[in-house]
Amino acid sequence: MTHCLPIRVYYEDTDLAGIVYYANYLKFIERGRTDWLRDLGVDQGALKDREGVVFAVRRVEADYLSPARFDDLLTVETALHQMTPARIVMDQRVLRDDALLFTARVTVACLSPNGRPARIPQIVRKAVA
């Protein structure tokens, strides 16, 4: 199942050339991942408080295909690629209408309070699977 999040490009998202600054795509896809989990019923704040675990980005493979500009309405798509006991790998895309602008494969690791790898809690595993 693919999660979709609409995002509007604001002036602050653009560079001097009037296109979305490359690092802002990482912010857009972060919002997509957060909303994906929220829509699946995973409250990351409560997860940290109850289970003592958090998710941290471990790896991002990104391709910038075409620029977005001020006031564009974009869609951030997020889909599960793979899940291991301690990692979730997602495929993410940013589109303007049917035009593909950006793709990424993002690996997030589940971490314990001391920053060591931890098993993904069952509640998250069930929601994501």
From TrEMBL:
The keyword DNA damage does not apply. One of its GO terms (molecular function) is fatty acyl-CoA hydrolase activity. The keyword Metal-binding does not apply. It comes from the Bacteria. Signal peptide: none annotated. SUPFAM superfamilies: Thioesterase/thiol ester dehydrase-isomerase. It holds the Pfam family 4HBT_2. InterPro entries: 4-hydroxybenzoyl-CoA_TE, HotDog_dom_sf, Tol-Pal_acyl-CoA_thioesterase, YbgC/YbaW. Keywords: Hydrolase. Belongs to the 4-hydroxybenzoyl-CoA thioesterase family. This is Tol-pal system-associated acyl-CoA thioesterase. The gene is ybgC.
